TrEMBL record:
It comes from Pseudooctadecabacter jejudonensis. GO terms for molecular function: FAD binding; oxidoreductase activity, acting on the CH-OH group of donors, oxygen as acceptor. This is Putative decaprenylphosphoryl-beta-D-ribose oxidase. PROSITE patterns: FAD_PCMH (PS51387). Keywords: FAD, Flavoprotein, Oxidoreductase. The gene is dprE1. The keyword Hydrolase does not apply.
Length: 428
């Protein structure tokens, strides 16, 4: 079925209108338009304004599963949260899980996503054993041994063909619950020290991006591991039915919320048991939470800087805190060196992600933060970007020429280009 519709990425600040086809069988998928999933990328990576797109979310079957060794083959539209729900009781999980369970396997490969265990496990595509790529009217199986095409496909923004299925090496799980230890980080140095010292399988820091002075960088560091036991009573998902008014995330409200959220963890810390989904995908419990930013939407700034540039990241955070524009959604993580593709985001260092309402002053602030990222030798995450320039992105990704050459060879007519590819002129 094909319908002409207006649609957006998760940030809702940029929109597109075009024909979207939603096939229910892989044999009906054509490699003549970009493939999209649940559009959890925040900017224009999943948009093709004025053109066609193929919605892969109904191509979502499990094709095979070897429980003994933890190897599974799934279609590209399979949601990672659904995969985790099915596999955890059987002792397995996808090796890398991003912050939302609505991301599809195909989207996770196209962005080479990372999770709360990147410091140990690397990126998503480092655990992909093989995938099938539809190019023109032919389907090609590729593996890490394929070479240039593999590196151009992993984190490659869907520009080398339509990913139709993937074989994943899973990671063992003790159960479908998480044993989570929460500690207060009192300031920036303490926050970084806790992240550096963590040996837990999964570690993430929530950071109060409104705190200033001696409290700059304060937050909560969560360390988790899978476990089994009595499952807590499930809580019904909530829905944001309407676009919130512009004042709902005003500076004073956000500051008060962040102070209360910080104090919810005792000074001495605590250990709790949570459902697995609540730990990995905390915001998925609030359907359409992006509507909290109002009808104009929002932008997320996410960068990573090398380990030796933590001071530069601290300076960025101070700039954000003084601006009064930050939302409650801010995350700090320690990353390892793992990445699978030429355009994969991760590097060994620290990554900071913060949401901002879509306002002129926020866009100007993000521009300053992007300049600071370039100066620090870091890079921006293309799954979140909606505002950068091609020159800046190409400077951040030194393997860009290799990727562009492989994409041009795989898609010489440019049929798979998206709004992001055109905005950043990435194919040249």
């Amino acid at each position: 079925m094909t319908r002409n519709t207006s649609y957006s990425g998760w940030g809702r600040a940029l929109r597109a209108t075009g024909d979207i086809t939603r096939p229910d069988d892989v044999r009906r998928v054509a490699a003549t338009a970009p493939a999209i999933g649940n559009r959890r990328s925040y900017g224009d990576a999943p948009l093709n304004d004025g053109g066609a797109a193929t919605d892969m979310t109904r191509i979502d079957r499990i094709l095979s599963f070897d429980r003994e060794v933890g190897v599974i083959t799934v279609e590209a539209g399979m949601r990672l949260g659904e995969l985790a729900r099915i596999l955890a009781p059987q002792g397995w999980l996808p090796a890398v899980l991003p912050g939302t369970g609505f991301a599809t396997v195909g989207g996770a490969i196209a962005m080479d996503v990372h999770g709360k265990n990147h410091h140990h496990a690397g990126s998503f595509c480092q655990h992909v054993m093989a995938l099938q790529l539809l190019q023109g009217d032919k389907t090609r199986k590729i593996t890490p041994k394929t070479g240039a095409l593999w590196k151009a496909t992993c984190g490659g923004l869907g520009q080398t063909g339509v990913i139709t299925q993937a074989t994943l090496q899973l990671t063992p799980a003790k159960g479908d619950l998480m044993l989570v230890t929460e500690q207060r980080a009192t300031d920036w140095d303490h926050h970084i020290a806790l992240l550096d010292a963590s040996t837990a399988p999964y570690t993430v820091g929530w950071i109060d991006a409104t705190a200033t002075g001696p409290s700059l960088g304060r937050g909560i560091v969560e360390e988790g591991e899978t476990c089994r036991g009595l499952r807590p009573a499930p809580r019904a998902a909530k829905t944001i039915p309407l676009d919130a008014p512009h004042w709902a995330l005003s500076g004073p409200i956000v500051k008060a919320f962040n102070a209360a959220y910080y104090r919810r963890v005792p000074r001495s810390g605590r250990t709790v048991v949570r459902p697995l989904q609540d730990f990995f995908f905390p915001l998925d419990k609030i359907h359409d939470w992006n509507r909290l930013y109002g009808k104009r939407g929002f932008h997320q700034f996410q960068c990573v800087v090398p380990l030796g540039q933590a001071a530069a990241l601290r300076h960025m955070l101070a700039t954000i805190a003084r601006s009064g524009l930050a939302s409650p959604l801010a995350v700090l993580k320690r990353m390892g060196p793992g990445r699978a593709g030429h355009m994969s985001f991760p590097m060994e260092g620290y990554t900071l992600a913060i949401d901002f309402p879509n306002r002129p002053q926020a866009r100007r602030l993000i521009e300053r933060l992007e300049d600071a990222t370039v100066d620090a030798g870091g890079r921006l995450y293309l799954a979140k970007d909606a505002l950068s320039t091609g020159g800046a992105i190409k400077a951040m990704y030194p393997d860009h020429p290799k990727w562009a050459a492989a994409a041009a060879k795989a898609d010489p007519e440019g049929l798979l280009k998206t709004d992001m590819i055109r905005r950043l002129d990435l194919r040249t």
